[in-house]
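Q: Predict the assembly, please.
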Amino acid sequence: MNEPLTFQYAVDGDNFTSAGQASVQVKKVLRRLGLDPETIRRVSIAMYEGEINMVIHAGGGEAEVRIYEDSIEIVLRDSGPGIADIDQAMQEGFSTAPDNIRSLGFGAGMGLPNMKRYTDSMQIESTVGVGTTITMRVDL
Amino acid sequence: MTIRDICGYLDAEVLCGAEALDREVHSACGSDMMSDVLAFVKNQAVLLTGLVNAQVVRTALMMDIVCIVFVRSKKPGPEIVAFAEENGLTVLTTDLRMYEACGKLYAAGLKGNGEIHE
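A: Predicted assembly structure:
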């Protein structure tokens, strides 16, 4: 298989206002590549939710998008506090986001479930105190 | 319904994207929680919200929403308007509250997505 087309982004964790910038960029790249609009929407929503999570919970991190012939892979890596109970975190409505995040329109406990809903597969590797890596795949 | 029609029903002011006022839109949603917009909205063209920050614009971009209506006289700052304009969105602001703004558009025939896509 050919090497995937890869795009890397640093996600700034200091500032909620800028959260989601990488996803906006990725959406533009995917449009230029001429992918179908529904695929673009799924990839960009899943990545956006992940990016918001990294800013809220982990002080930022790195995002990488790899475009293969038959799929798009999104890898989100952070060195945040980690997720103690992944099953609990996956439940709709469960959130550990602080109240000020809710006043900004997020923190409803929908982020991870949405990421799963919009992608064909999602893996979470997390170690408390070390960080979290989420790998999502959308089939083409 | 066009975005121009929405301006009329809501007595709304256009903050940017006036060149797209004749664009046809077929559905809308109203929410202050962007999490819910990202979770439940599908193929909506118009977002009505009382939340004002850059994430509203990014959420709209992710969802392929083409028009944002800020209710309760909310007006985003110039950076947010410029960001929306760069990305081809039309941004409106109305004095109406969320319930009234949604009600007027719904009564005029603009549907929610449950009725169109389910």
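The longest helix of chain B spans residues 98-107. Chain B touches chain A through 20 residues (CB under 8 Å).
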